[in-house]
Write a structure and sequence with these properties.
two-stranded antiparallel ribbon, 9 helices, 2 strands, about 5% strand, transmembrane, transmembrane helix, membrane
Length: about 350
């Protein structure tokens, strides 16, 4: 039993991965009746009940949108047909589905990262576990209710999938409790903590001596000039590319992200790889560390954005309050709306 408990945090993410992989090809939704009948007979009441139906998963939806877009762009359509707005809408919907597919694949790979980092006792394992397990418990819960409704509709296959989901849900909770209560230290791959320092990147620290008073002004002017150049030579062309070449631009962005990710994985392997592990084990942990960095930077970005929005909202509210106070007490301004 003790050996099983030790292996459970390694095995439970793999069961979660099977559920995620299944959802890529099979999805469920609630179908409501098209009309409301006043008939109170038993067949009519059954017809009016919402039903859970099985439909294509994310991969099938993307395939359908691609085929629909190809049909819109076919030469068989009348020449005078104006479908540019429809094509743009379908292209953007397709990009949204592909972005969601990328998010699901990231979640899928995160399950393997959780298993690998626990097996090698990597120091960042608990950070990954605190994201994976709560999210998985939330994701699995609606799937359980869908299968319960399908069981009520006497779907035979739903009985087997429901048992599998219950088993996965139970071992997910159990594994998460074991990870939280685990008192053993996670000290593997400590060198990765310093992978972003200047020395590890091969750069020497910059000189901190202060110069003349003209140096900051010169730096500001250089920053303004670089901003103008980047805006005109980079941002505006990129905006026009994503507007007129939606699919090609999305593939280009995905290619750049993949290329940059491969660079970082090999860099982390070079900096933080441990000698007692082979090359592929170090690469697997490096990939897991890249996901950890994505999660950490993503949460920091979201938190910073929320703080900025709250700060700007507070300043704007304070400004309106001061204007209203001055108007009603001192009479220096006219109507507030004129401001």
């Amino acid at each position: 039993m003790t050996q099983f408990k030790k292996k459970l945090p390694i095995l439970s993410p793999l069961f979660i991965a099977l559920v995620i992989f299944h959802s890529l090809f099979v999805d469920y939704s609630v179908q409501f009746p098209d009309f409301i009948s006043s008939d109170s007979s038993e067949p009519s009441r059954e017809m009016m009940k919402p039903k859970v139906i099985q439909e294509s998963g994310l991969v099938g939806k993307i395939s359908y949108l691609e085929s629909f877009l190809a049909e819109l762009e076919s030469k068989e359509l009348p020449i005078d047909t104006d479908l540019e707005d429809t094509k743009d809408s379908v292209k953007r919907a397709l990009i949204g589905q592909k972005l969601f597919l990328g998010l699901v694949l990231f979640y899928l790979f995160l399950t393997f990262s959780a298993s690998i980092t626990y097996a090698f006792r990597a120091w960042f394992h608990k950070s990954i576990a605190h994201v994976l397990y709560p999210v998985s418990l939330v994701v699995l819960l609606p799937k359980l209710f869908f299968q319960l409704n399908l069981m009520a509709q006497e779907d035979v296959l739903s009985y087997f999938y429901f048992v599998f989901l219950v088993f996965t849900y139970v071992i997910t909770i159990w594994a998460y409790r074991l990870i939280i209560k685990d008192k053993e230290s996670f000290e593997g791959f400590q060198a990765l903590q310093f992978s972003s320092s200047l020395e590890e990147e091969g750069r020497s620290p910059s000189n901190t001596k202060t110069g003349t008073y003209f140096a900051p002004i010169f730096h500001v002017l250089v920053i303004i000039l670089i901003g103008i150049l980047i805006g005109n030579l980079v941002y505006i062309p990129i905006f026009l590319l994503q507007k007129h070449y939606v699919s090609e631009f999305s593939y280009f962005i995905f290619f750049l992200i993949a290329l940059l990710s491969v660079f970082y994985i090999f860099n982390y392997n070079k900096v933080g790889g441990e000698k007692e592990n082979n090359k592929w084990q170090n690469l697997a942990v490096s990939f897991a560390y890249l996901q950890y960095r994505f999660l950490r930077n993503g949460f920091l970005s979201i938190f910073s954005t929320i703080l900025i929005v709250l700060f700007v909202t507070f300043l704007f509210s304070l400004l309106l309050f001061n204007i209203d106070l001055i108007q009603h007490n001192l009479g220096l301004f006219g109507k507030t709306s004129e401001f």
